[in-house]
Amino acid sequence: MALFDKSAETYDEWCQTPLGHFVDQLEKDLLIKLAHPKSSELALDLGCGTGIYSLELAKYGLDVIGIDLYSKMLIQARNKASQAKYEITFLEGDFHHLPFEDECFDLVFTNITMEFATEPKLVVSEAMRVLKKGGRFIAGFIGKNSPWGKMYQQKGRNDENSVFRNACFFTTEEIKSLYSYEPKSFQYGLYLSAEEFTTYDEALKLEMDRRNSYPIEEAGFIAAKWMKD
Question: What pTM value is reported for the model?
Answer without folding.
Answer: 0.94
